[in-house]
Amino acid sequence: MATTAQPLRGKTTCKKIFWAVFPHACFILSLVIYAFLGALMFSHIEGNREVTLNEEYRTFLQNLTCLARKLSDNVTENEKMFRNDIRELFSTADPVWFINPEDRWSFFGSLFFCCTVFTTVGYGNTYPVTRTGKYLCMLYALFGIPLMFLVLTDMGDILATVLSKSYNEFRKLQSKIQASKLCSGSTCSKRNELKSRAQSKIVINEPLTIMEVLRSQSGMKRRPVKYRNVELFEMLIARENENTRPVRTKSMERWSSCPELARGKAVSRVIENFDKIGKELEKLDVPIVLMVLVIFVYISCAAAILPNWERNMDFQEAFYFCFITLTTIGFGDTKLEHPKFFLFFSLYIIIGMEIVFIAFKLGQDRLIVLYKKVISFCAEKKMPSKKIYPK
């Protein structure tokens, strides 16, 4: 019986772990599938579009040729005028004229574009040109952005739990270190002795009856240490609590005889996991300075790695790019030249956006508390003072 019960317990434990991880894996897998489907769609629509040279493009080439002919051999005299003319000419140019659609809208390039859409970064260097692509982009963002925010909220709960437990453990360790520093040798031994006595008074392995207490009291007369009235009272209370404690009913495993019950129980557990999404973020209580420090270290690590991939970036430029990306600002002035590296970088971006999201949530809570204090202070100042009239 013991050999058969052990594999059954292992199976039930695996099932519990599976149903606990299932909601989180479901969200992430949905986002990955959504990104790949969008990449296939946009690479087919925008990558296979026909490049038509309109009249504006021909006019641009003619003006550029005229400027090149006007430039004399003495470059120093006409350099300033030529620079102004060429700047005005290129300001009217459309970037689409200089882009090959098949190169820009490859599968990896389209996947890069999809990630910039549902993460709301939007660098601006890649955008749909065809009318069908623009309509599909709006529809794609309409469902992709809520899905991305759902993934951020769900994964944010996990990070919030890790940060809360780490911060609490750090505070406990800090308090123990401070207590050990303040505690000297003689006083510390006395405190530990008093603490051990208090624990021996409170913790009782087996609650005693009144007769057992009286017998122990009579038997303890020959010993130097005797039970006091407080100890007798605590023993009686422990015995009373043991009698009044409700009987714990062990849940019966009925899955072997009736699998429908186990299936319904697993489904209800999964639904409870879905309902708990976002609850841990509400409970998070970590100093905002600590979150800013975590963000700074997180961005600095990527800023030290990115220059090895992107040769046009140094540490400062990479730090600026990561900050603009994780905050979903996405100016587009600094961008990655190799979209394939963005795929390996996407996991970093999603986790970083979750950390920034948690920091924004903490900052929002602090602002709300500050506004409440300011409004309460102003309301107290405006309250008329009570006048005491003589009788």
What does this structure look like?
- The longest helix is centred in the middle third of the chain and has 52 residues, at 131-182.
- With 391 residues, the protein is mostly helical.
- The radius of gyration is 35 Å and the shape is elongated.
- Helix content is 74%, strand content 0%.
- It has a domain at 104-176 and 279-377: Helix Hairpins (Orthogonal Bundle), CATH 1.10.287.
Task: List the main descriptive attributes of the protein structure presented here.
14 helices; Helix Hairpins; mainly alpha; single chain; 74% helix
Q: What does the overall shape look like?
A: elongated
Secondary-structure element pattern, one letter each = HHHHHHHHHHHHHH
Question: What is the CATH-assigned architecture of the domain at 104-176 and 279-377?
Answer: Orthogonal Bundle
Computed Rg: 35 Å
Largest sheet: none
User: Would you count the extended β strands for me?
Assistant: 0
Q: Which CATH class of the domain at 104-176 and 279-377 applies here?
A: Mainly Alpha
Q: What's the CATH topology name of the domain at 104-176 and 279-377?
A: Helix Hairpins
Subcellular location: Membrane
Domain Potassium channel: 96-159, 294-364
GO cellular component, one term: plasma membrane
InterPro entries: 2pore_dom_K_chnl, K_chnl_dom
